[in-house]
Design brief:
Helix content is 46%, strand content 15%. It is α/β, with parallel strands linked by helices. The protein has 3 domains: 7-165, 3-Layer(aba) Sandwich (Rossmann fold), CATH 3.40.50; 173-345, Winged helix-like DNA-binding domain superfamily/Winged helix DNA-binding domain (Arc Repressor Mutant, subunit A, Orthogonal Bundle), CATH 1.10.10; 352-454, Trna Endonuclease, Chain: A, domain 1 (3-Layer(aba) Sandwich).
């Protein structure tokens, strides 16, 4: 499959590579998000050495690295003897000029030898800083990369010349995996898989959504069937408790008190687990967009950030006994398909909010874009542009019926309740619809500059 998107990330790496100085670039992100594919695409036409770390003992990894370096430089002595220490490696590389050296899954090196951050810090300071080398440290363990590599207590702190957090693909970029699908049909794929390239590659555009789920998720031997289980066990020491937290959130228990009641865990314990899951970008904390004290707000709720984790905890995790017994059709027909459109509507809202962040309507750049809610009312999209003193209010409807004027009228009533620069702000309204709009609403939009319809 051709390499898809990542133009900004590639441009970032290329711009640093064009400079004359040595570079130490840290690349991190969730598992399966495409970090390795990115660095391979970047380095394929450049002189480079790629080393994939594993959980082998430190001396074995150094031996494997010696072989990779020896083969690259055709050094028979190095192939036969190898590096005795990491300092030998740094001393050898410092005279080799501008070569790209990639350490993939760098956290595994740290697991095999906790002194690795200190060794690399000394190697960088004494040998590599003036060598012209382009060193990339890449890792999937978000927690370890942020503490052991990027954190202020790490020996490597302050050494990096650049860092790159690789995020899941946007809806538009992910669509490139399935160019033959209509946008409408692809929303189902994206709603279940999100923008993680490794997950998108599992689905077949020649199959419909139902059949893809049946073959690629609801089969015990399928790659996606145990993927969240694998990721959590790889990242966490107490995965069972985190499973309980995530299942509670998937059931709509989004407030800390609700999660405590559902799981039976102590409040402090739940707080710790929520913090860890947020750092791993599996969940996110959300407050009404008008709340400026994000950390102190008491209105915060927790939502599953990862689309596939959300699908898995909604439909796979609670139905594993059926799936293990080969009753995937029952799970599809009775558990998934009846509620699928309601499930997908959440992803549709996410995609719509992304459009507003890009500047819809009128090309306005909003400081904050998110949801707004009070005790009784909720607005899918509120965007606030401080410099322009402008607010946009939006609703997203994933329905087979066209959106009518009643939705607009209700949105305008709710907008009055939003307490942000009342009486001073300029307002826009935007409606997103899966199935278009009624003629009456289209006529009204044609008469108003502050109303945009997006089908």
């Amino acid at each position: 499959m051709n390499f898809i998107d990542r133009e900004n990330e590639l441009a970032f790496l290329c711009s640093f590579h064009d400079e004359d100085e040595s570079q130490l670039i840290v690349i991190y992100g969730k598992r399966r998000v495409g970090k390795t594919a990115l660095v391979k695409e970047f380095s394929k036409e450049r002189h480079h050495i790629y080393f994939l770390a594993d959980k082998a003992p430190d001396r074995d990894q150094l031996r494997q690295l010696s072989e990779k370096v020896g083969l690259y430089f055709q050094d028979e002595f190095l192939l036969s003897r190898g590096f005795g220490t990491w300092y030998d490696f740094f001393g050898y590389i410092k005279s080799k000029g501008k070569v790209v050296i990639i350490f993939d899954e760098f956290p595994y090196l740290i697991e095999s030898n906790p002194a690795i951050p200190s060794l690399f810090q000394k190697g960088w300071d004494e040998d590599l800083r003036q060598s012209g080398v382009f060193l990339i440290l890449l890792g999937s363990s978000m927690g370890m990369m942020e503490t052991e590599v990027l954190g202020h207590k790490s020996p490597l702190f302050g050494r990096r010349t650049g860092q790159l957090l690789v995020e899941p693909l946007s809806f538009e970029s992910a669509k490139a995996f399935f160019p033959v699908l209509s946008t409408d049909l692809f929303m189902y794929f994206y709603g279940a898989l999100g923008g993680t390239p490794a997950y998108l590659q599992q689905f077949d555009s020649a199959l419909d959504f139902r059949e893809n789920v049946r073959r690629r998720i609801l089969v015990p031997e399928a790659y996606l069937y145990r993927e969240p289980d694998f990721v959590l066990r790889e990242e966490l020491r107490e995965p069972r408790n985190y499973f309980a937290i995530l299942r509670a959130i998937s059931m709509g228990k989004t407030r800390p008190a609700e999660i405590v009641n559902e799981t039976g865990f102590e409040k402090n314990m739940v707080g710790k687990y929520l913090s860890v899951l947020t750092e791993l970008k599996i969940i996110r904390r959300e407050v009404p967009v008008t709340e400026w004290g994000f950390e102190k707000s008491k209105k915060g709720i927790y939502l599953l950030e990862d689309h596939f984790f959300r699908f898995w905890f909604n439909y796979v995790y609670p139905n594993r006994s059926f799936i293990e017994e080969g009753q995937s059709d029952y799970v599809l027909d009775k558990k998934i398909m009846p509620s699928l459109d309601r499930f997908i509507s959440w992803s549709f809202e996410e995609v719509c909010r992304a459009q507003v962040r890009k500047g819809a309507p009128q090309g306005i750049k909003y400081n904050r874009v998110g949801r707004w809610w009070s005790r009784e009312r909720e607005i899918d999209i509120v965007g606030l542009a401080e410099d322009d003193n402008t607010a946009v209010f939006g609703e997203c409807k994933w329905s087979i019926n066209p959106v009518g004027t009643d939705i607009l009228n209700d949105l305008e009533k709710k907008a009055v309740l939003v307490d942000w620069r009342k009486g001073e702000r300029k307002e826009y309204f935007i409606l997103f619809s899966r199935s278009g709009f009624t003629k009456e609403l289209e006529k009204r939009a044609g008469e108003r500059e502050d109303l945009l319809l997006w089908s």
